[in-house]
Protein 1
Amino acid sequence: MIREETGSEMAKKMWGGRFRKGMDKRFEGFSSSIAYDYKLAEFDLVHSLIHTRVLQENGILTVQEANRINAVLEELLKSIKDNRFKPNLSAEDIHTDIQNRLEKKIGPLSLKLHTLRSRNDQVVFDEKLFCGFEASMIGKLLINVCEVLLAQRRKYSEQPFVGYTHGQRAQVILFSDYLDAYFYMFRRDVHRVVNYTESLQAFIGAGALAGSGLSRSSYERAIKDFLRTTPVYGKIRPVVNSLESVADRDFVIEFLGLLSIVQMHLSRLAEDMILYSTQEFNYLDLPEEFCTGSSLMPHKKNPDFLELVRGSSGRINGNLVSVLTILKGLPLAYNRDMQLDKEPLFSSVETVKEELTMLKEFLAGLKLKEKVIEQALTDETLYATDLAEFLVLKKVSFREAHDIVGRMIRYVEDKGMRLSELPDELLISFHRALNQKEMQRIINPFNAVASRKSISRKAPKI
Amino acid sequence: MIREETGSEMAKKMWGGRFRKGMDKRFEGFSSSIAYDYKLAEFDLVHSLIHTRVLQENGILTVQEANRINAVLEELLKSIKDNRFKPNLSAEDIHTDIQNRLEKKIGPLSLKLHTLRSRNDQVVFDEKLFCGFEASMIGKLLINVCEVLLAQRRKYSEQPFVGYTHGQRAQVILFSDYLDAYFYMFRRDVHRVVNYTESLQAFIGAGALAGSGLSRSSYERAIKDFLRTTPVYGKIRPVVNSLESVADRDFVIEFLGLLSIVQMHLSRLAEDMILYSTQEFNYLDLPEEFCTGSSLMPHKKNPDFLELVRGSSGRINGNLVSVLTILKGLPLAYNRDMQLDKEPLFSSVETVKEELTMLKEFLAGLKLKEKVIEQALTDETLYATDLAEFLVLKKVSFREAHDIVGRMIRYVEDKGMRLSELPDELLISFHRALNQKEMQRIINPFNAVASRKSISRKAPKI
Amino acid sequence: MIREETGSEMAKKMWGGRFRKGMDKRFEGFSSSIAYDYKLAEFDLVHSLIHTRVLQENGILTVQEANRINAVLEELLKSIKDNRFKPNLSAEDIHTDIQNRLEKKIGPLSLKLHTLRSRNDQVVFDEKLFCGFEASMIGKLLINVCEVLLAQRRKYSEQPFVGYTHGQRAQVILFSDYLDAYFYMFRRDVHRVVNYTESLQAFIGAGALAGSGLSRSSYERAIKDFLRTTPVYGKIRPVVNSLESVADRDFVIEFLGLLSIVQMHLSRLAEDMILYSTQEFNYLDLPEEFCTGSSLMPHKKNPDFLELVRGSSGRINGNLVSVLTILKGLPLAYNRDMQLDKEPLFSSVETVKEELTMLKEFLAGLKLKEKVIEQALTDETLYATDLAEFLVLKKVSFREAHDIVGRMIRYVEDKGMRLSELPDELLISFHRALNQKEMQRIINPFNAVASRKSISRKAPKI
Amino acid sequence: MIREETGSEMAKKMWGGRFRKGMDKRFEGFSSSIAYDYKLAEFDLVHSLIHTRVLQENGILTVQEANRINAVLEELLKSIKDNRFKPNLSAEDIHTDIQNRLEKKIGPLSLKLHTLRSRNDQVVFDEKLFCGFEASMIGKLLINVCEVLLAQRRKYSEQPFVGYTHGQRAQVILFSDYLDAYFYMFRRDVHRVVNYTESLQAFIGAGALAGSGLSRSSYERAIKDFLRTTPVYGKIRPVVNSLESVADRDFVIEFLGLLSIVQMHLSRLAEDMILYSTQEFNYLDLPEEFCTGSSLMPHKKNPDFLELVRGSSGRINGNLVSVLTILKGLPLAYNRDMQLDKEPLFSSVETVKEELTMLKEFLAGLKLKEKVIEQALTDETLYATDLAEFLVLKKVSFREAHDIVGRMIRYVEDKGMRLSELPDELLISFHRALNQKEMQRIINPFNAVASRKSISRKAPKI
């Protein structure tokens, strides 16, 4: 036991030998992390399961002692997987909580577990495993969204749609082009997630900052043994540089950065769909189960899901700034400031997971209002570029063609006419190759999209 | 009742008449805000207490009905002040939770409360009152910290101290100068808090965005009546421009911006004290009850409180970024994205309050190691500027004086000597006015600080 | 002169006596600030003009010397006001540039100017005056924008308009309500600017961190004399706490925070107007001189001004984060990191000034498409709340009224009908008070806006 | 020509056919990007060189025309590589500048170049090539820094050093451990850079958003031909999804995110070295050519380079926030807001390149003060953990060992003694295995570092 005063809170701390006074109560709450770091319980148990074997290899634990400790740890691990684990909020952190549980089960032997290791080593190890797991999960959710986009694409494969730049009608596209755009964004996100998880290496054995007397080879053997039965925990390695290992939070920033790109994509999709579901655009029928009404205005069907997704950029960007700020100018090796990286990390992970899970359902329930879109596609300015392109093929320099079409549009605007109504004699005055028949061929959504040879419309694959 | 299907979750929503499908369960959780906006309960009750009287003034409620409703609301208000209020986490938000409680008590009459008002109006009203209260509280905590700084200043009033620029020893100062520096920072924060609270106006009557048929004069009377008995709730006004009122979150950003300056001050103080409590500086003895030990290294006494304060800049800056990001490019009037302003707001307020509360105790427990400081003050480079100043008074141009002292320092560095040991014949070679006696007068901490006439050392007042 | 090696770059530094090696050339460029801090030239001259008098008061300069120095400084000040001042980019910073110019004009006497003062004191003094001037200018530009909003309001005083929440049509408002919303936002910004400038105090006399032997009373007299002739430079005071004074950058963060709110307002206005100028909304005719075309698509008229304004939130928020990051955990007193506060400060000030200047012209050129708006106002769902409000006055509880109207809307949606077409016998089945005549009175934009008694529509004043 | 009014500014725009009014002069300046996007000139020429061949393949240009155009483009490209290219700041952007230069050389034929392409396509293409080049350059600079770290490590290979956690002395390490820590951080940065450049694909052929009639196969051939002679430009591909391609700025955020991690590492190194070069720590002798003095205090040698590096985190983090903010909620496809991504991108790239270039020289000039370090290593608390570890090997449970050592430290602190002086009889009262001889073996820096078996000290490789 660390202290004589059994029963007191301090007795349960994993440190304290040289301290004369107890912690300030308020500070105890302020510095406690159990309220959130309990999420690392599973991974902390992995650290302990390996560490026990390392201690055994070094003769600090007997085989029997090691087995007895690990049996309890395995049991705790199972309770987590079965969702039966509830953190004890009066513990200082998850490491202490687990230690206390062990002590309750096996008494003084438990005190041997935390031999020659440090929470500095544990927490970075735990967080890396956490990040690996969560990144994989997010990768899967992204793939789910990609699959729904593909399904919607099959449903609306030949549907022309209005393409925008600067929020202004630009050219006719296919709705599948639009869906594919997001497909490719999310697929890039999947690649980023995969690269990220592949780069993760969880080190063990750094001690507080300087390593310990436990041999590297014992770590190698213990890790190998552990991963043989449970390879799911990814890359675990004996520490190389111990200072760097406990000080490293690159992987948190990298993950938060990656999520900020996913979130940016989500916010753009949300904005698009909010626009398209206004009464003015009116292209989309949003699934009602993701909308809400108003307590005052009886007619409202608000795209709240999309708004909350758009607004979540605040949280995700804020979390990234948070961790970047914390790490700025932090000297080596471990500093307590680093404890504050966990809440932003968990918050961003949780938010993106929720968004992606719902987005899949949301996108599956999305319906296009083909009639409205058909009407919009009669806007002749959408074909202005196609008209210019036609002239180019008639050997007009593009900038001249651009100018001719510009003047034609100005003309019909002034006269309140339509391009497709212009009589041949007038058309010819703009360019000799123009006539009503050609105009009608050009001003047609199907012809417009068919004429674009520079792009690929093959259905993409995940 | 909004829906026939009594008992269902939807029946408890404050909207839904036109909806055919229930909300997606997961989305219901995602969009729910009760888990945090319950903190607004008190202020939401204020809105309702006033609104009831407005409805009565407009003949929509009888006096008896209004009294009956307000009796329940007052009771709820009391339960909050007595710390007995527990939010019902299955409600959509705090407005709905309160509405449901009212319904339980007085049945269908309760449904009349939410007449011609909107949660858009309520939430901004509630948040403004919240901000006003919390800002005042933070103002008081800042004043507490100022007072401890003054007390420590009295204790160490004539204690010389080492002043730094660029992390390098610069000139001798008084420890009271150092304490006053933070005093003035925090006092400026108090002024900012006061300006902020004075600028807050909580509007009532905006409806969802466009006002309502309830008369402005009825609002005026109801507000006046309410504030007569409970002026503590600050400035409440009938809405002027309803669009602007529901769309406004300036006051959240302004508050978060103000807190980011307080936090910046805290982080600088923390950094200074972390430095001063290293074994190398060793100027300060930190109160043990705000330090922790290491689970591995038995000798450690770590300044965790200060580290967590320094690291909290991450959270505070992240929260500001969060709300700025949310508001960027948000069209008028209300959008659901705005719901996400609350968690960052509450988080920053809570963190700064905790920090200030503990800081007061921490600073009160701080002790100076006078011996160590005395030793540090024998570093003669600390008097280099005083030496140059002496030469200036002997009619040397300052840049020459600067150059002479620079060369003197280079000289003693090269020779491994001390300035105060230089013999008169050598001193005179640098400048005729120099001699050992003058040097000893100059190289003295008390003389150094006494010679600074440009600054004021009167004890500051709050 | 600081160094013997006249002519070398180092000879021109304001320090260097103890240094043996010259600066690394690349580092010289990296650490130089003249490329941007030349903007502080005017204010740095003010510091010098006062400092000269302080030196004279303390007997370090004779009256003749002081006059001779100040004559040159005054001349330089005039060259700035006449726009003839060009920074010498080979100087280290603006302080050195000015010092060098002085030296060219009056030789060795110039070296006496920088006696017992520090660039730490100068730069914070300069920046505060800069902030004061620029904030006032931004205040004026905001007022200009407010005035154009008032002019447009007079032009469209009785024009009904569509009000939105969640991007969805909500209720009929007046276009003047809409304009007023931004008026009130910008007017709040004006108040913030005024509060800010009033709180600014530029201190002089801090030295590097610890004050100097120059008497406070000499500062008082010199400042008083200076401000008598040129009160425009605002509040200048002898320093109180010198440590705090050189370490203070609160006023930079506060200014950047204030600008981030102005910018947020600008981004919301921009977003609204981008929306309203889409072909789908089509409410606004944007002034062509603030739009651009496409090099490919001949028909495009893009709202580039608005997009750049919206996007400028990136720059403004980034600049705020930048300075908050720099200041985090910076120990007292001055650190070189602080030099990096200037580029973000100047960038935000410049951007907001440009935006406001153009916005005034832009808003003046804005035209409403009344026909399109008239058409939009025939959307009957815009009157749903008015309908519910009507029922409330017929003693229906609001939540029942809400439900009735919800069901009416669902009914007409299903039947493809309009509310105003529903026959009396059907209307009565929803509520006995409903009939065609009442419906037509309610479904009328002018009646709708006239019925809102809770808000004020008096033309606001600046 | 686009307009009749040759000579006017508008005539030089690449659009404008439908416009009646010229651009507002101030807006012209506000929206112009040439002042910074000239940095893309080289890559824009690559786009044009390929596009010319595509037009030729599609029969829009003859071979002779294509050759004539490309000859001029090649010449411009050479002028850039020879550093002779000066942007014409009156052009709207770099695309227009190059177009104008082409026109000057070959007259009307030049107008054919911008046929069926869009600046939306060009700018994203250009930026991707820019990012690829700059990332490679940064990769090389990082490797240079790694090499200097290795060189210093060889120099100080067996030098013990003080290891810190929480800013407090923790355990003895080797200085090479410390250097390696940063080596591994920067090497991870190299890997991130490599992954990043490998993931970059520059697409060509997207048009404004919807592709064009130019065939994909013609793009394939033209790209292949181009890359055959100049493979240095990396991966260039015919566009797949054109919407996504013009809307994509992921690669900017990813690059800025990557740089924010590099910068975070730099800021930590800077902070460490600022600390270690204080008079109190005094472990390092910084190369004088990277330090500066004070204009007031003659003795100062300030670590300005390190401070500016630390402070640059502000700029780098701000730039990341800037682009994340810009992209938030931006609808598809291109919006003018995106133009504002370039300044932050260029700023972060430039800053990190400068820092790394100087850091190499700085680190090469760094010297350790072995004497000071030797003295620091006599601090016995540095061996507390080694002492506990010794007890563990004597079969004491670690938590008991921790407690024993804690009490020993408390004892010597109270008595003002040293651990190594404790007499055997006292030592034995703490634990029977303790005696003076063992204590002296344990309290020895070389033994301490030699005893750590869990870490690897092999010299790392790049």
Note: DSSP finds 18 helices and six strands in chain B.
Protein 2
Amino acid sequence: MPNPVFDFSVLKKIHGLVLPAVLAALAVSPARAQMAPAPSVQQGGAANLPPTNPVYQKIYHVPTADEITATLDRVRAYLEASTPGRLVDGGGQEITDFSQPVAGATVERGGVIVFPLLTYEEGVVFVGMLDAADATGDAKYNDYVAKRLNVMANFLKVSPAPGAATGAAGRGGRGAALGGLRTPYSLDQCGAMCAGLLKARLAGVGPDLSAVTNGWMDFIGTKVPRLADGTIARHIPMPDTVWADDMYMSVPALAWMGKLSGDKKYYDDAVKQVTQMSARLFRPDLGIYAHGWITTNPDPVDIHWARANGWCVMAMCELLDALPDGDPARGTILTLYRAHVRGLAALQSSDGLWHQLLDRTDSYLETSASAMFVYAFAHGINRGWISPAYGTQALIGWNAVASRVNEKGQVEGTCVGTNFDLSEPYYYYRPTSVDALHGYGPTLLAGAEVLKLLKNDKIKITLSVGSIYVSPVPNQPMPWLEDGRAAGK
Amino acid sequence: MPNPVFDFSVLKKIHGLVLPAVLAALAVSPARAQMAPAPSVQQGGAANLPPTNPVYQKIYHVPTADEITATLDRVRAYLEASTPGRLVDGGGQEITDFSQPVAGATVERGGVIVFPLLTYEEGVVFVGMLDAADATGDAKYNDYVAKRLNVMANFLKVSPAPGAATGAAGRGGRGAALGGLRTPYSLDQCGAMCAGLLKARLAGVGPDLSAVTNGWMDFIGTKVPRLADGTIARHIPMPDTVWADDMYMSVPALAWMGKLSGDKKYYDDAVKQVTQMSARLFRPDLGIYAHGWITTNPDPVDIHWARANGWCVMAMCELLDALPDGDPARGTILTLYRAHVRGLAALQSSDGLWHQLLDRTDSYLETSASAMFVYAFAHGINRGWISPAYGTQALIGWNAVASRVNEKGQVEGTCVGTNFDLSEPYYYYRPTSVDALHGYGPTLLAGAEVLKLLKNDKIKITLSVGSIYVSPVPNQPMPWLEDGRAAGK
Amino acid sequence: MPNPVFDFSVLKKIHGLVLPAVLAALAVSPARAQMAPAPSVQQGGAANLPPTNPVYQKIYHVPTADEITATLDRVRAYLEASTPGRLVDGGGQEITDFSQPVAGATVERGGVIVFPLLTYEEGVVFVGMLDAADATGDAKYNDYVAKRLNVMANFLKVSPAPGAATGAAGRGGRGAALGGLRTPYSLDQCGAMCAGLLKARLAGVGPDLSAVTNGWMDFIGTKVPRLADGTIARHIPMPDTVWADDMYMSVPALAWMGKLSGDKKYYDDAVKQVTQMSARLFRPDLGIYAHGWITTNPDPVDIHWARANGWCVMAMCELLDALPDGDPARGTILTLYRAHVRGLAALQSSDGLWHQLLDRTDSYLETSASAMFVYAFAHGINRGWISPAYGTQALIGWNAVASRVNEKGQVEGTCVGTNFDLSEPYYYYRPTSVDALHGYGPTLLAGAEVLKLLKNDKIKITLSVGSIYVSPVPNQPMPWLEDGRAAGK
């Protein structure tokens, strides 16, 4: 007798976008079968032994607010000591009088100063400091930002006429020269830093640098290479190359400029970057991004570099933070963000971090990307974009990241600056360094958001038979369960 | 000149459900091109060396019936010595007079007794013993079951009034107390054990315990938490959580109660559990199950715990065994079962076992799940549900499982009782223990079914140039090639 | 306010076959946003350290023509010394008079001779020598082939009547006997070797052996087992088994016979083999091939043996080389070839080679398949079938392959002759051997094509911040970007 086969399209629907609607129905349904009282856990019995593995014991616990604050403060202190905070003249003497031009004015360097100032990594540090200030209430984090914004403002007062000391070849090398304040020379140089300056301004931190940010926004809007469809691209390594990294280099700046100016064109450009880069780089079957795409090859390069994914998910967080509630693109961005979170969640390693190549367990565990993911998970929970269920991974992910902050406050295990390469070996063998500033901002962001998670009164964190669970407190709305079609809020 | 591109939908169809129909056509076609006589293998020649690797030599051979029987008997003997088989009074003395109430009556414990009695793991042991009896013809396996069923029946005669010593908190801890016979307190406690009792009854083994099984079936039908659509759920870790494990905790009991009672509602509920849990947990692209699904998250947790997959595939085997030939749901269940077998077959490890996280080769090799898969493959071949071609993996999988049965008859390398956790590290670092009873029933089942495979006269096992092949004997019908739509039998 | 969700079908389209059309539009569009001058790379700055890992340093560089030529010559010299090049009589004395029959005539063996002659592996060696001659301009490579073709031609002059010393059981074992010249006994014996003979004839190398190749083509066309739909199959391990290997054993011979004869039936059969085998074995979601498919199982065996994939991609290269420009099947074959290249490119290992099981990083790195992939990438770039962007992987892949050619000219790390097995352990533990001739032809091919890549004036190889890029020289047509529908050329 003929029988129906199982209709796999049902699974595909449920695994795809239709599920939220199904679930919303379940979630609000008052009609359930009679339920027995919640039993105590009977799984495992006598043999339900806890693991004694030291790696596991180090990461699998709920961190305390004090632990997190201590880690954040150690990182802040190291950055404070190691990042330029003063202007010097051509002879290397600190400038204290900003009322007149000073020959050879530039930022301090050498000695204990190991990091540059005008770079995308430092832009993330600014954003992380602002978030840490918000999470801890400690003014020192904002002070860090304000001090460096003053350096920039003062530089504009004392430096020679526009045009001097500009460009990558400026004195002091990459980012050390501040000529980029007047004459931006690459998206790397100004994009993420612009977001940092705009967020500082929105938070009322530091001097007004709108002349700088206006110039940078003009650069982003009209000077940065773009494909014919408006997608931001690079001429590196070849003409019209799309880098996942550039989602972060452009989108947060565009989004916060939209907020600050009220001009919808910035939001629209930010949305365009996310969707058009995703169309080229996102693998919906895996839920992760390829690092890049070259005009001369129809296929994305299927190498899933962790930090590239970090840039994307952080960019989407910033856009969702900035985009007004009723914006018709929210649903689009939320759908992509959620699909990405799900893909990333499927790839956490045994030790709580993520691999340098996300889907290659034989690649090393990388700190900066892991911190970005911890931030993105915790932030999305705090905002109500994703289920608090992802909180387990955020909490133990944070513990794993924190274990890489050493006594000095240095962040270990971060992949150094990385080209868009077209082969796996390049990524497998990228060195790591405590001097890679890329790890510091994300660590601040991850700690700040996990701290907010601990303080979030809409969720509760429970321990049951050795497992950590994060769930909504009862009778909360669960917006992440709504069909994306209705998720405009 | 324009050319057609390759239509990938053809591949997708062929890789999907349409293939069996295509193949059935091929298989019955009398028209083939002229064929040369079957040549001897010319692959590799002088360099076609056999592997000298000791792991390979241990697992890659056709096991003998004697080897299997010896392993089964060693496991049986260890279980016989280590599992409660007597009732004792409050003073610890064995009860021999069951004609009147005895204060503090309970099962023996301590000393050589290391396992509990009234648990799901022991339910699987019962099912395994019954299958081993069937495969070997040795009454000792049925005796094991009968002895413990008598303990239960006698407990009901001598124990105090209903309500005493019930619940998880009953004396002797989890499963040691027999109060659950009268007052079930969780699906874990009664579901799989109910299947064991029902199968024993169908096999005519042990006393009539229908009062117990009727109570348990009522509990499963009306007291166990369910979602609004009737899917069985738990309040652990959060309200309305779907565990893959519960497919086994519910479906075999429902299926065999259907068989015993003839009441279709049990079959229908069993089918509903398989399909509705699969809709939430099965990943059709991977062919494997997620461990669980939480109402507060639209996505399944994409962590593919091996034993959760074992519970699912074993539950489907039991349902297909019980479900009448003409039942319209057979095609649905067969399709799911076959897709799952294919997914599992793609993930056998280098050493013949499967990994704790199925798709993570850096997770440890786990015995209980591996034994479940070996059982499911061999059973499906013996039943004609899947191609005998899967027999190679079943045979060497058995050798790998058998290598984990030590001299004492203990099963090594089994993951202890395991929560539904929301992070990978939890699963990576679950300890293993010979005291985890979860490995014993599946090992009995795996050995029994592989023994039946060796005796199966519808298939032949051949060795060719160092490879093992299992194929249908000529002129057999091959029901697994039929389109699922017609696979009602 | 309701918002649109992101339409994932857009991504799927872009990741699928629609992308090339989209890109072609982009590529030819004259309208781009204003672009800043190409900036120097600013990624990473002070921390952008080069890797010091010795494996990386060994493989990640652009090889020189001299390096490649030296490696090729070392392999050629070893093969010249180790492969039969003389006929001997029954007493082992070299035959020099070919004007009359000689009792017991056969090829030399023993001593320094370690390889057989009439085998598919040697067929690939012939093809590789011809390609190396073309790439280097060095006559010694063609001489190697001509010498062995003369051995065959002379054997036909001096050997006894047809029928003697034929078959696998002929004197000297597999391939040592030359009876297969007159009476082919398996596709393995004659298929790839036939391609070698046909390509030699097209290149004007060696004597006319069309009597032999005509016999072999008749065998392939009418005697080799086929399924009802005409797909070439084997009776090993079971009746009507499709081996991916047989794509190479049949398609190049069919394709070059099509070229030589002008008879379209050969092309059509070659196209049929590629498409029908792909329909059974290719996984479009992964972009790679399963090793085999058995009529008694509707599913392919999802074990992705590297060398099986090598046979497929090399067969497609040969077919695309031979198939006339306007043939309506070119688009189909190009689409499959490109999807396969993309799948393979996603799976290169950390060390530049590919794994024995392509998607299992815990399986060993295998030389023969890696060489085949390097060949297929470089050849496709040289022909304009795929983006030059794949050149990075080809170049460092070659370095990795070359590192496995030892001082003697032996190719190390090649998996020995391999059955189609139905379990992963079989493949994991296949031994490797320098006596596995399978590695030699592919190494010649890989080196020859990478040498052509270095000399290819349509592409340029650049180094930028430590990364290797291969790109088209400006204003080149980019046929690989065209929609496959229009890719008839």
Note: The CA atoms of residues 316 and 337 of chain A lie 6 Å apart.
